[in-house]
Amino acid sequence: MIVIRSTIFYLGYLSSGIIASFLACVIGPFLGLEDRLKLFSQWPKFANWFLHISCGIKVEVIGKENLPTEPCVIVSNHQGQWETYSMQYLFHPMCTLLKKELLYIPLWGWAMKMLNPIAINRNKPKEAILQTLEEGSDRLKKGMYVLLFPEGTRVKAGRVGKYARSSFELAKRNGVMVLPLCHNSGDCWPAHKFIKKPGIITLIIGEPFYVEDSKQSASDVQEWVEKKLNS
Predict the structure, then answer these.
(1) CA-only gyration radius of the chain, Å
(2) What are phi and psi of 110, to 5 degrees?
(3) What CA–CA distances, in Å, run from 214 to 37, 92, 147?
(4) Global pTM?
(5) CATH 3.40.1130 fits 2-229, yes or no
(6) Per-residue confidence (pLDDT) for residue 207, from 0 to 100
(7) Residue pLDDT, tens place only, 172-204
């Protein structure tokens, strides 16, 4: 049964993604960035609804009152696919960091490019950090949230990778707050796995703070996420 439900989800997820990307490519060029972000965020919202209907996975958000009204750097742990699209409608307007090669995917990548993401080459880490600091600063000045995954790669459910300091350095340089996030998406949607397990994905929005020492802040948030995942 769980295989059938996962199959139904992927059929709806992929087909709706193709349709949404096509429509975005057709309509997007006639819209400004803010309107594109609003329009394109409707598909992630639908995807989460369909995830609930097909696989019995609910999404619970705790701490919405902690979301700043001004631009900030959002840092999240990274367990799988869910958080890469769900944040698009939970936080607005938002800029995401992604791998440059994803923009070459027909339709989906073209649509993503119109959202003005920070597209980095992960094979050149030093250049990627400088690009993130430069373009991240630009997006913050334009009034956008900037979403980053300090672990740099997906980590198995229940585990936390080492948090890099660059995300926190971006916030410090621009005098904006860091908003820490913690979620358990890997419990229901493990990375690179076909099967989706029924349950609740809980997203915890922590209290925002200003960065004084980027290295210490990275360590503190990593510790906070570890405690939340194990509580």
Answers:
(1) 17
(2) -65, -40
(3) 30, 25, 16
(4) 0.93
(5) yes
(6) 97
(7) 999 999 999 999 999 999 988 899 999 999 999
